[in-house]
Recover the amino acids of this structure.
């Protein structure tokens, strides 16, 4: 009986030792822990919508300072109401028709007359010619505006006549050139505006700069053989830049050879091409 108790005690002791040994055995550190793969969390997706770029309206160019009314107190749109003689083109080589516009009015009710009304420059430019009581223009001034100096916006609206050939004046004209006759090169072109039948001689000098809307004279009826009442004769041409006429005259016995030649060059030879003044005066519309 004692022997069996001793065996049980020995077995219990051995079992307790094994348990203690296994409990104190360290866990190996060189064993990598198994890691379960982690799936990425789903993220929200969206589509970028294109943004609409607003199309801005193209502003209408302001040409109010490019072309001015040639008469004080009369707007460009009102000029058609006071045309007393319209533009009538002439045959090349001849001096007929009416190469410009005549503006005039007499309003009895308001006791208004165009006589002595300030004449304004329709374009910025330089004085090309000053005439003092020479027929048929009377007191007159020509102002040159190089095409290169005109704003692109105005050029887009104004259809310039294409350059044409110079013609020989009709044989009945006395256009013989003087010994010192000037020639003009057509490398560049300018607009020339003639303001005629002014009340008094123009005080501006050749080559003097004038601004659009600047007063250059007053309405009158000089050159009486060709002016029966106060009015502004407004004549527009395109020709070679840099032209300067010291004078011009025709249809009068006191005209010189140089004056007659200048008149033929300006008005008959087509070197300075005539065009309807309303093409310029309505270019802002």
């Amino acid at each position: 009986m004692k022997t069996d108790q001793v065996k049980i005690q020995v077995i219990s002791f051995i079992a307790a030792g094994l348990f203690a040994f296994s409990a104190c055995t360290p866990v190996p550190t060189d064993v990598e822990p198994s890691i379960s793969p982690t799936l990425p969390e789903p993220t929200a997706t969206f589509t970028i919508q294109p943004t609409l770029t607003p199309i801005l309206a193209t502003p209408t160019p302001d040409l109010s300072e490019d072309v001015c009314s040639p008469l004080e107190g009369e707007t460009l749109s009102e000029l058609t109401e006071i045309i007393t003689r319209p533009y009538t083109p002439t045959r090349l080589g001849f001096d007929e028709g009416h190469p410009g516009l005549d503006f005039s009015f007499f309003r009895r009710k308001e006791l208004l007359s165009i006589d002595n009304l300030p004449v304004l420059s329709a374009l910025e430019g330089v004085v090309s010619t000053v005439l003092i009581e020479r027929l048929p223009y009377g007191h007159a001034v020509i102002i040159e505006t190089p095409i290169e100096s005109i704003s692109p916006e105005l050029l887009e609206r104004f259809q310039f006549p294409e350059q044409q050939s110079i013609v020989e004046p009709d044989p009945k004209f006395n256009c013989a050139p003087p010994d010192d006759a000037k020639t003009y090169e057509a490398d560049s072109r300018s607009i020339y505006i003639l303001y005629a039948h002014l009340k008094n001689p123009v005080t501006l000098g050749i080559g003097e700069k004038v601004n659009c809307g600047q007063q250059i004279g007053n309405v009158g009826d000089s050159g009486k053989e060709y002016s029966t009442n106060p009015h502004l004769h407004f004549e527009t041409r395109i020709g070679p830049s840099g032209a300067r006429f010291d004078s011009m005259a025709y249809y009068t016995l006191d005209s010189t050879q140089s004056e007659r030649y200048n008149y033929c060059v300006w008005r008959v030879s087509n070197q300075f091409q005539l065009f309807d003044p309303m093409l310029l005066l309505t270019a802002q519309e």
